[in-house]
Design a protein that fits this description.
It is a single chain. The chain is α/β, with parallel strands linked by helices. The protein is built from 16 helices and 19 strands. The protein folds into three domains: about 220 residues, 3-Layer(aba) Sandwich (Aldehyde Dehydrogenase, Chain A, domain 1); about 190 residues, Aldehyde Dehydrogenase, Chain A, domain 2, CATH 3.40.309; about 45 residues. The chain is about 45% helix and about 15% strand. The strands form five sheets. A seven-stranded mixed beta sheet has the order 10-13-14-9-8-15-16, with helices on both faces. Strands 5-4-6-7-17 form a five-stranded mixed beta sheet, with helices on both faces. Strands 1-3-18 form a three-stranded antiparallel beta sheet. α8 links the parallel β6 and β7. The structure holds nicotinamide-adenine-dinucleotide (NAD).
Length: about 500
């Protein structure tokens, strides 16, 4: 029996004891996760610094702050999220209890990515714990320092059997994927996403795929370019461009291309100094493989800003590429690095066409003072999320579902969406054994009269206030009894 198989079996046995279900237990584990983050801030920051050359403050800002917010929210709202959710009834069920009961799925596999190694691995875990599941946590081997700290320290805070951490590379992940889970939550690229889905199909396991892709950014010529370019510069070069929702490329009219370039140049200098390589808040590419991949994407394009690099340090300067076309090499895959190509289009029509000819992105950015133009882009395109006049920050709103569509993924999380995603939303209908007369219309023989009563009872929605519902309930019970007595039994 492999190590992975053992871990999954142990997690399943622990789940089957029922100990992850009581709300007090879930709250206790969530609070322990919070203690882990606050007590081990330095360990976490040091690991991320080794993995991605990120400063301590940047790690707190971009990794753990959001995580803490999600945990606080789950702790505050858990009772409400986990409670039965009454739903609208029809006339036939007006006196019954009809509700949705969220219940745990079982054992969840969480496969994390390396670019925000803590946020993308532990945030799904918040949903998994809140929903009452067991979860096997597989951090990315690429961010190896973070994976090691997670493996060593998390078990000190969380139940080791219910929430084990499994480290290792592709073969360990593949071994895990052979096991039976009740849900797989994967964050990473679309190619591996397909392998995950294939493996999940074997056990009919549902999946959440948080993938990436090329997120476009349209800048309207009439907008305040100073503000727009400042926000785009931040969204692109934070974490050295290794952000799933980073604006991948800019679409704008030729008449503003020079100004866009100059504004971004100015912002790069302001944010990262004349020499970003020496500046503590400018990161590094995760490894040599990705360094070579990103460098090769520049081939054939004109560098307008930056372009220098240092392979020994996996350093690539914040770079802007101008006059790029849809056929350029940099446009053939998600960049996931600090290269920002500008593609010129004749206006919003061509921008929309350009976007729609490609895979549905994870995020779509549009900068414009014209509300009508923004609404048009919303109406005529599709993406995981749309953000107007800013970058990335939709991620911070827990009430918005975070996830992709089409090639950028399936499923969603954050806040209650994460709880719901990792719960089974069970339909519950509790009837009583009385009022059998009202059922006659469904029993044979299926006469025309019974059918017309069925139409009446089933097609009339009940959408009334509680009090009126109670009063009507009594009235319909009498009416139903009368109908049964007077018509159905005789016909
Ligand atoms: P990665 O290389 O860390 O891979 C992710 C996980 O997949 C790892 O745990 C790894 O062990 C596993 N894996 C890799 N190859 C495998 C294989 N052949 N079989 C089974 N498992 C395998 O991360 P990555 O894919 O380079 O991450 C970057 C991608 O993730 C980008 O496309 C980015 O946009 C996307 N991403 C998406 C989100 C989101 O929330 N939507 C967040 C972060 C990253």
């Amino acid at each position: 029996m492999s190590r992975e198989q053992l871990v999954v079996e142990r997690a399943r046995r622990a789940f089957q004891t029922g100990k992850s279900k009581p709300l007090e237990y879930r709250l206790h584990q969530l609070k322990s996760l919070l203690h882990f983050i606050s007590e081990r801030r330095t360990d976490i920051a040091q690991a991320v610094n080794k993995d991605l050359n990120k400063s301590k403050n940047a790690t707190e800002l971009f990794e753990t702050l959001g995580l803490e917010g999600e945990i606080h929210l789950a702790v505050d709202k858990l009772t409400q999220w986990a409670a039965p959710r009454p739903v609208e009834k029809n006339l036939l069920t007006i006196s019954d209890e009809v509700y949705i009961q969220p219940e745990p799925l079982g054992v969840v596999l969480i496969i994390g990515a390396w670019n925000y190694p803590w946020a993308v691995t532990l945030q799904p875990l918040v949903g998994a714990i809140a929903a009452g599941n067991a979860a096997v946590i597989k951090p990315s081997e690429v961010s190896s320092h973070s994976a090691k700290v997670m493996e060593e320290l998390l078990p000190i805070y969380l139940d080791k059997e219910l929430y084990p951490v499994v480290t290792g590379g592709v073969s360990e992940t593949q071994e895990l994927l052979k096991q039976r889970f009740d849900h797989i939550f994967y964050t990473g690229n679309s190619t591996v996403g397909k392998l995950v889905m294939q493996a999940a199909a074997h056990h009919l396991t549902p999946v959440t795929l948080e993938l990436g892709g090329k997120s476009p950014c349209f800048i309207d010529k009439d907008c305040d370019l100073t503000v727009a370019c400042r926000r785009v510069t931040w969204g692109k070069f934070v974490n050295c461009g290794q952000t799933c929702i980073a604006p991948d490329y800019i679409l704008c009219e030729p008449s503003i291309q020079n100004r866009v370039v100059e504004e971004i140049r100015k912002n790069i200098k302001e944010f990262y100094t004349e020499d970003p390589k020496k500046f503590e808040d400018y990161g590094r590419i995760i490894n040599q493989r990705h360094f070579k991949r990103v460098m090769s994407l520049m081939e054939g394009s004109t560098v307008a800003v930056g372009g220098d690099s240092d392979q020994s340090e996996c350093y690539i300067a914040p770079t802007v590429l101008r006059d790029v076309t849809g056929e350029s090499k940099v446009m053939q895959e998600e960049i996931f690095g600090p290269l920002l190509p500008i593609i010129t289009v004749s206006g919003v029509d061509e921008a929309i066409q350009f976007i729609n000819e490609r895979e549905k992105p994870l995020a779509l950015y549009v900068f414009s003072p014209d509300n009508k133009l923004i609404r048009r882009v919303i109406a005529e395109t599709s993406s995981g999320a749309l953000l107007a006049n800013d970058c990335l920050v939709h991620f911070t709103i827990s009430a918005l579902p975070f996830g992709g569509v089409g090639n950028s993924g399936m499923g969603r999380y954050h806040g209650q969406h994460g709880f719901d995603q990792l719960s089974h939303l069970r339909s519950c209908l509790i009837k009583k054994l009385n009022m059998e007369g009202t059922n006659d219309m469904r029993y044979p023989p299926h006469t025309a009269k019974k059918l017309s009563w069925a139409r009446f009872f089933l097609l009339k929605p009940v959408n009334l206030g509680r009090l009126r519902r109670m009063a009507l309930l009594a009235m319909f019970a009498v009416l139903a009894a009368f109908i049964v007595q007077r018509f159905l039994r005789s016909g």
